User: Fold these one by one.
Assistant:
Number 1:
Amino acid sequence: MNKDRRTRSGGAARNRRPARGEGEPASARNNPAKARPARSAMASSGDPGAAPALILKEGRERSLLRKHPWVFSGAVEHMQGEQSSGVTVAVRGADGRFFAWAALSPDSNIRARVWSFDEAQPPGEELFSARIRSALKRRHLDFGGGRPLRILHSEADGLPGLIADRYGDTLVVQISSAGAERWRKLLLQLLFDETGCMQVYERSDADVRALEGLQPRCGFVVVEDGVVTDDVAATLEGAESSAVISENGIQYEVDFATGQKTGFFLDQRDSREAVREAVGVLVGAVQAGTPIDVLNCFCYTGGFSLAALAGGASSVLSVDSSGAALEIARRNLTLNGFDASRAEWLDADVFKQLRTLRDAGRSFDLIVLDPPKFAPTARDAERAARGYKDINLCALRLLRPGGYLATFSCSGGISADLFQKIVAGAAADAGVSCYIERRFAASSDHPVLMEFPEGEYLKGLLLRRSD
Ligand code: SAH
């Protein structure tokens, strides 16, 4: 499987597995947590030489008892021992009771992220490799091998701050927490070994890294003789920075070096398929020759546009403000052999374009609204709500009777319930009545842990306008 894996030595990776402890941060290797000192020693407060521990305020252990993986700064009574970025701390009550092993994020309001709730399972090779294996097993059962997939989804897979998407034989990883950063080499090594991928590309450039006090890092992970190093390289001999993937029978080019996020929005896989089906329903309901016109707003590399064409749409107008994304979208059209005259690509601002279309008297049978995150946190919810209301109102005014609106929000700060209320308000203002035909969420390779509802960021509605 690993015959020609790209490593700096040029030849086949020897696939040497690092010895236990190797690849871990030096201080973590000597982590007193591993030695598990007596509880009394751990509980002694104020001693800088003590084992790193985070002591909770009284009553603030409740969320940890429910297995919620975050400790907010306001819950911390005091710290003891080393407090460097990403260091493993024992989270304890004032009486010394153990609640979790967690990674410290000294700069963040989310002060610690839980690795494990089991005192006998501190972070390290054993725990990480078990987490990676169970994430892979779950997805393999759900999806079968080889498909483009998110194989690690941060907290939901027990590895806070670590995301990994598989595109063909490339793994694209994103590290966004101080804890995952500290264990970077070991985590990447285990991923490299467990997945058998040819190359790992690191896209650790998400804005959230700044909140953790981390600098961006992007490039091919340099692997020497099978061992992951600290380095990344802009290019690697024999390695491509893009891949062609196949999703629901449609081919997409993914540029994981310069594309948005890790290059492709795998979370919308099921929704794209639902849009293809909805177009099929429309095509089936009209007399032959009646055109079915689709508008795809925030189209990125054309995911929903190609799905709509595959469903039989006569025309698809796609809008995005990224010229680079539209270039890939055009190539994707060709890649799938669709008739170029059925697709129009517009480099424009959606907020403005929706008004231009209204002024031009245009209307559509199916409209997709898949905007970027307007509200990363609950604090931005009000401003975001105005944005969602605006685009949904404008889109509903362009929707023909009996037509579909597939509308989404990937804002963590907007709940599914609130999103539905916003869209209902937009429909009322537009004077149209709609049925909710379907509710969308991220596909199941982006799992949501019940004890971590914050992980449920993507929500959407498939509305059908009544006649
Ligand atoms: N639906 C896409 C993913 C959309 S991501 C898919 O299935 O792959 C959001 C997109 O919105 C990005 O491509 C970004 O370039 C675009 N975008 C952000 N703000 C915009 C704006 N004001 N007008 C048009 N496009 C915008």
Note: Residues 260, 265, 268, 298-301, 303-304, 319-322, 325, 349-351, 370-372 surround S-adenosyl-L-homocysteine (CB under 6 Å).
Number 2:
Amino acid sequence: SCPIVVLVGRPNVGKSTLFNRITKSRNALVDPTPGVTRDRHYERVTWEDRVFMLVDTGGIDDNPEDLMVNHIREQAMAAIEEADIIFFLMDGKHGVTPADHQVVEILRRTEKPIFYVVNKVDSPEQEIERLSPFWELGVEKLWAVSAEHNYGFNSLMDGLSEQI
Ligand code: GDP
Ligand code: MG
């Protein structure tokens, strides 16, 4: 058995895009519509000399904010149970949300390694501006990445490798 890495975050933050980049496949459906239900996807990944199981979590049927917050909270709690390592993805283009704050509160309860990832930082020029609202979450480290354009991806994977 190998470590399980779970991608968590609200719909549309780019979980499936990151899943596809890491697995170098197109197995997770990237959907521009927030809240489209997708199954969980599991794929065994070999990254350099490390092996892990990557899990992409789907969206929900409805997207009223309260339903979504509950859903994300449940997702986060399930990830804490299932995962050895958690990637909590947020949307740097959209900015920090109340759901992000709630999930961070839940994730603080675990000792498992958590990567707080701000996605959609598409170039170095965007990094300071897109990252800055997320510092209010009070986490020690934020990973600025662009799942779509590859920015920050190699450092994120190096960080992951160190935990495996
Ligand atoms: P998920 O619902 O969290 O799985 O998100 P998806 O991977 O389906 O992506 C949702 C939308 O965000 C799609 O339109 C993607 O093209 C877009 N997206 C994903 N990653 C990035 C990124 O790094 N930068 C930008 N600008 N858009 C992205
Ligand atoms: Mg998805």
Note: The chain has one domain: 4-163.
